[in-house]
Amino acid sequence: MTRIGIITGSTRDVRVNLQVAEWVKDFADNKDINAEFEIVDIKESGLGRFNEAIPPLMTNKEYATEEQSIWSRKIDSFDGFIFVTPEYNKNFPSALKDHLDYLGEEWHHKAAGIVSYGSTLGIAASLALRTTLSNLKVATVEPQGAFSLFNDFENMATFKPMEVHKPRFGEMIDDVVAWSTALKSVRKEKSFA
């Protein structure tokens, strides 16, 4: 079965990020699709700011802390991802960037979808995240979830997405699962190279 990690993008105490991730998981779990979805909350990872002497972790696993090793195994266990990111200053949060930077090959040859939100739907954050993910050899699907703080949140605090998003969001889930399943063969071929 194809495993998809739903990765939160914020660690702030006042975040709405986890609400969005939980909605994504519930939506995905209710689709008739051959995949397993799991929320991966970066706030619970135990990792701090990325401040390693030799990036990424794949080059110095023997020096990894317990938290880094756990993060490595967790990400390696997935076939694909859905990143849930807010937009801060036209970019995705530094906490998410740090969590991406801790690893290397664990991300390679997997697929991802992006769910963004903000005052302008988080579009700038999603574009920045796509660039970073491409450098990590992650193939991002075109359909994405993009939510407005003004229309999809009650008082900018409680996530209540409009129904209009569901068809496009369903396409994103389908594409993430299809691409993630297909890329398993690429990873298998690379492991024998």
Automatic annotation (TrEMBL):
One of its GO terms (molecular function) is oxidoreductase activity. Keywords: Oxidoreductase. The keyword Disulfide bond does not apply. Its EC number is 1.-.-.-. Residues 2-148 form the NADPH-dependent FMN reductase-like domain. Pfam families: FMN_red. The keyword Oxidoreductase applies. It is an enzyme of class 1 (oxidoreductase). InterPro entries: Flavoprotein-like_sf, FMN_Rdtase-like_dom, NAD(P)H-dep_reductase. Gene3D superfamilies: 3.40.50.360. Belongs to the azoreductase type 2 family. PANTHER family: CHROMATE REDUCTASE, NAD(P)H-DEPENDENT FMN REDUCTASE LOT6. This is NADPH-dependent FMN reductase. The lineage of its organism: Bacteria, Bacillati, Bacillota, Bacilli, Bacillales.
